[in-house]
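Quick note —
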Amino acid sequence: MHWRRLRRRCRRVIDGIPLPEPFSAQELCARLAADRDRPLRLLTLPTPTGLGMPTGMWLATEEGDYVFYDAQTSPLHQEHIILHEIGHLVCDHRMAVEDPRLFRYIDIEDPASIRRALGRTRYSDRQEQEAEMIASLILEGAGRVPAPTLLSGTLGGLASGMGLRSGTGPRGSRHSGAPCSRG
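Predicted structure written out below.
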Protein backbone atom coordinates (compact mmCIF):
# COMPACT_ATOMS: atom_id res chain seq x y z
CA MET A 1 0.00 0.00 0.00
CA HIS A 2 1.40 3.40 -1.05
CA TRP A 3 0.40 5.11 2.23
CA ARG A 4 2.32 2.58 4.34
CA ARG A 5 5.46 2.90 2.21
CA LEU A 6 5.25 6.67 2.42
CA ARG A 7 4.83 6.51 6.19
CA ARG A 8 7.84 4.17 6.57
CA ARG A 9 10.05 6.37 4.35
CA CYS A 10 9.17 9.50 6.25
CA ARG A 11 9.48 7.83 9.67
CA ARG A 12 13.03 6.92 8.77
CA VAL A 13 13.87 10.53 7.95
CA ILE A 14 12.59 11.94 11.24
CA ASP A 15 13.68 9.11 13.55
CA GLY A 16 16.96 10.94 14.21
CA ILE A 17 15.30 14.25 15.06
CA PRO A 18 14.71 14.55 18.81
CA LEU A 19 11.47 16.36 19.61
CA PRO A 20 11.63 19.10 22.24
CA GLU A 21 9.70 18.61 25.47
CA PRO A 22 7.43 20.40 25.89
CA PHE A 23 6.91 20.39 22.16
CA SER A 24 6.69 23.50 20.03
CA ALA A 25 7.30 23.90 16.32
CA GLN A 26 9.32 27.03 17.09
CA GLU A 27 11.66 25.14 19.43
CA LEU A 28 12.05 22.33 16.88
CA CYS A 29 13.01 24.93 14.27
CA ALA A 30 15.55 26.47 16.66
CA ARG A 31 17.12 23.04 17.25
CA LEU A 32 17.22 22.25 13.52
CA ALA A 33 18.90 25.59 12.86
CA ALA A 34 21.53 24.87 15.51
CA ASP A 35 22.09 21.29 14.28
CA ARG A 36 22.44 22.44 10.68
CA ASP A 37 24.51 25.51 11.68
CA ARG A 38 22.23 27.54 9.42
CA PRO A 39 19.67 30.21 10.35
CA LEU A 40 16.01 29.21 10.13
CA ARG A 41 13.48 32.00 10.53
CA LEU A 42 9.73 31.68 10.97
CA LEU A 43 7.73 34.47 9.35
CA THR A 44 4.01 34.98 8.91
CA LEU A 45 2.40 35.34 5.51
CA PRO A 46 0.40 38.44 4.73
CA THR A 47 -3.24 37.86 5.55
CA PRO A 48 -5.62 36.66 4.48
CA THR A 49 -4.10 33.75 2.59
CA GLY A 50 -7.34 33.05 0.72
CA LEU A 51 -8.77 30.05 -1.04
CA GLY A 52 -6.32 28.41 -3.41
CA MET A 53 -3.38 30.29 -1.93
CA PRO A 54 -0.60 28.51 -0.06
CA THR A 55 -0.83 28.63 3.71
CA GLY A 56 2.90 28.06 4.09
CA MET A 57 6.16 27.89 2.19
CA TRP A 58 9.84 27.21 2.65
CA LEU A 59 12.50 29.32 1.02
CA ALA A 60 16.19 28.37 1.10
CA THR A 61 18.62 31.19 0.38
CA GLU A 62 22.37 31.50 0.67
CA GLU A 63 21.87 33.27 4.01
CA GLY A 64 19.51 30.74 5.58
CA ASP A 65 16.10 29.10 5.51
CA TYR A 66 12.76 30.84 5.87
CA VAL A 67 9.48 29.16 6.73
CA PHE A 68 6.38 31.24 6.11
CA TYR A 69 3.04 30.29 7.65
CA ASP A 70 -0.53 31.54 7.99
CA ALA A 71 -0.89 33.27 11.36
CA GLN A 72 -4.68 33.60 10.97
CA THR A 73 -5.47 29.95 11.63
CA SER A 74 -5.60 27.78 14.75
CA PRO A 75 -2.37 27.14 16.69
CA LEU A 76 -2.48 23.41 15.77
CA HIS A 77 -2.90 24.26 12.09
CA GLN A 78 -0.03 26.76 12.32
CA GLU A 79 2.19 24.03 13.77
CA HIS A 80 1.14 21.65 11.01
CA ILE A 81 1.93 24.23 8.33
CA ILE A 82 5.37 24.93 9.84
CA LEU A 83 6.12 21.21 10.18
CA HIS A 84 4.99 20.56 6.60
CA GLU A 85 7.55 23.10 5.42
CA ILE A 86 10.15 21.54 7.74
CA GLY A 87 9.31 18.27 5.96
CA HIS A 88 10.46 19.84 2.70
CA LEU A 89 13.63 21.04 4.41
CA VAL A 90 14.61 17.73 6.07
CA CYS A 91 13.90 15.80 2.87
CA ASP A 92 16.01 18.31 0.93
CA HIS A 93 13.18 18.80 -1.56
CA ARG A 94 13.62 21.05 -4.52
CA MET A 95 11.77 24.32 -4.39
CA ALA A 96 8.87 24.84 -6.77
CA VAL A 97 11.02 27.20 -8.84
CA GLU A 98 14.79 27.04 -8.97
CA ASP A 99 15.52 29.77 -11.48
CA PRO A 100 18.19 31.96 -9.81
CA ARG A 101 16.92 35.01 -11.73
CA LEU A 102 13.70 34.73 -9.74
CA PHE A 103 15.43 35.61 -6.48
CA ARG A 104 16.05 39.21 -7.51
CA TYR A 105 12.27 39.69 -7.33
CA ILE A 106 12.01 38.27 -3.81
CA ASP A 107 12.13 40.46 -0.74
CA ILE A 108 12.41 38.38 2.45
CA GLU A 109 10.67 41.15 4.38
CA ASP A 110 7.78 41.03 1.87
CA PRO A 111 6.25 37.52 2.04
CA ALA A 112 3.78 38.44 -0.72
CA SER A 113 6.68 38.53 -3.21
CA ILE A 114 7.75 35.06 -2.08
CA ARG A 115 4.22 33.68 -2.34
CA ARG A 116 3.99 34.91 -5.92
CA ALA A 117 7.29 33.24 -6.70
CA LEU A 118 7.29 29.96 -4.80
CA GLY A 119 3.77 29.11 -3.68
CA ARG A 120 2.79 25.46 -3.50
CA THR A 121 -0.91 24.73 -3.60
CA ARG A 122 -1.00 21.11 -4.83
CA TYR A 123 -0.82 18.05 -2.60
CA SER A 124 -0.63 15.43 -5.33
CA ASP A 125 3.08 15.23 -6.05
CA ARG A 126 5.51 13.09 -4.09
CA GLN A 127 7.29 15.97 -2.38
CA GLU A 128 4.03 17.37 -1.05
CA GLN A 129 2.91 13.95 0.17
CA GLU A 130 6.22 13.44 1.98
CA ALA A 131 6.10 16.87 3.62
CA GLU A 132 2.51 16.30 4.71
CA MET A 133 3.38 12.89 6.17
CA ILE A 134 6.40 14.26 8.04
CA ALA A 135 4.25 17.00 9.60
CA SER A 136 1.70 14.40 10.70
CA LEU A 137 4.36 12.06 12.11
CA ILE A 138 6.01 14.83 14.11
CA LEU A 139 2.65 15.92 15.52
CA GLU A 140 1.89 12.29 16.43
CA GLY A 141 5.29 11.91 18.10
CA ALA A 142 4.69 15.11 20.07
CA GLY A 143 1.30 13.85 21.21
CA ARG A 144 -0.56 16.64 19.39
CA VAL A 145 -2.64 14.25 17.24
CA PRO A 146 -3.38 10.53 17.68
CA ALA A 147 -1.59 7.98 15.54
CA PRO A 148 -3.82 6.26 13.00
CA THR A 149 -5.21 2.85 13.91
CA LEU A 150 -6.93 0.12 11.96
CA LEU A 151 -10.18 1.84 12.89
CA SER A 152 -9.24 5.34 11.80
CA GLY A 153 -11.37 7.41 9.48
CA THR A 154 -14.88 6.43 8.49
CA LEU A 155 -14.56 2.93 9.90
CA GLY A 156 -13.43 4.37 13.24
CA GLY A 157 -16.34 6.79 13.28
CA LEU A 158 -18.79 3.95 12.69
CA ALA A 159 -17.17 1.78 15.37
CA SER A 160 -17.20 4.66 17.85
CA GLY A 161 -20.82 5.45 17.03
CA MET A 162 -21.71 1.82 17.71
CA GLY A 163 -19.90 1.93 21.07
CA LEU A 164 -17.04 -0.31 19.97
CA ARG A 165 -13.53 0.38 21.23
CA SER A 166 -10.92 1.26 18.67
CA GLY A 167 -7.78 -0.85 18.81
CA THR A 168 -4.27 -0.29 17.65
CA GLY A 169 -2.84 -1.84 14.57
CA PRO A 170 -0.91 -5.10 14.62
CA ARG A 171 2.35 -3.16 14.65
CA GLY A 172 3.61 -0.15 16.56
CA SER A 173 3.94 3.24 14.95
CA ARG A 174 7.71 2.92 14.46
CA HIS A 175 8.73 1.66 11.04
CA SER A 176 11.88 1.68 8.99
CA GLY A 177 12.29 2.20 5.29
CA ALA A 178 14.00 4.24 2.63
CA PRO A 179 14.51 7.97 3.13
CA CYS A 180 12.47 10.63 1.36
CA SER A 181 13.18 11.20 -2.30
CA ARG A 182 15.80 13.79 -3.05
CA GLY A 183 14.33 15.39 -6.11
